[in-house]
Specification:
By secondary structure, the protein is mostly helical. It has helices spanning 18-35, 44-51, 65-88, 94-111, 113-120, 135-152, 161-184, 193-205, 209-215. α1 (18-35) packs across α2, α1 (18-35) crosses α5 (113-120) and α4 packs across α5 (113-120).
Length: 230
């Protein structure tokens, strides 16, 4: 249902169930942010219409649209961080940890293209979503930097902390580019997603792609899903 269509009238929540409405508002905002052609134009009125309440009902849970959007961002970052941590929790060595985290990141981005765009699309104005709202994204990057540095330990020449940060940043840039292009250009005859992940990590770890590919099944099966159109 588009944002222009009216939802069916919503039943009032019984007394004491205000958190139900809050969750519904958050779900509606997340849905609209992930499906609108121009998510930066989202309004509280659209969120209220999606849930079937008066716009004034939102203010008992969120002071303004910015607070609602930032809440959605925090939940999505937590979801992605949890998936990456779970993927790597039983990793026997740093390389497997890195492969698991990166594979989880890419697969979530491909499986959830709208939510990925919400986090990393960069289309929200600063006065609506300040840079501080993406602090959890910096934590995800730090985890990749740490994992990549650990996987590189034992090399003859150890990189400095600045070089480790730059290497991790370049890896995240490559991962983001892979997800974004894969999602936005689904008509291209892409190789299997696991092959792309293996080749990308091979370039950034100087390990053979075949070695990386052999570790990917431990991270879960390739979703094999074509990116959804947004």
């Amino acid at each position: 249902m588009s944002s222009q269509e009216r939802s069916a009238p919503r039943r009032r929540n019984p007394r004491g169930q205000g958190q139900v409405l809050k969750a519904q508002l958050v779900d509606a905002a997340a849905k609209l942010l992930s499906t609108l052609d121009q998510p930066e134009t989202l309004t509280l009125r659209q969120v209220a219409r999606e849930v079937g309440v008066a716009p004034a009902s939102i203010y008992s849970h969120f002071p303004d649209l910015s607070a609602l959007i930032q809440h959605v961002l925090r939940l999505r970052y937590e979801e992605l961080a949890r998936l990456m941590d779970q993927a790597a929790q039983s990793a026997p060595d740093p390389l497997v940890d890195l492969v698991a985290r990166c594979a989880a990141y890419v697969r979530w981005g491909v499986d959830q293209p709208g939510h990925y765009r919400t986090l990393f699309g960069g289309r929200m104005p600063d006065d609506l979503v300040p840079g501080s709202a993406h602090g959890a994204g910096a934590e995800l990057l730090e985890a990749v930097v740490t994992s990549l540095a650990a996987a590189a330990e034992g090399e003859r020449r150890q990189p400095s902390a600045e070089q480790q940060w730059q290497a991790g940043l370049m890896l995240w840039t490559a991962l983001h580019g892979l997800v974004s292009l894969y999602n936005d250009h689904g008509n291209i005859p892409w190789p299997p997603l696991d092959d792309l992940i293996a080749d990308l990590l091979s370039l950034h770890t100087a390990r053979p792609a075949a070695e990386i590919a052999a570790l990917l099944p431990q991270c879960g099966d390739d979703p094999g899903l074509a990116p959804d159109s947004i």
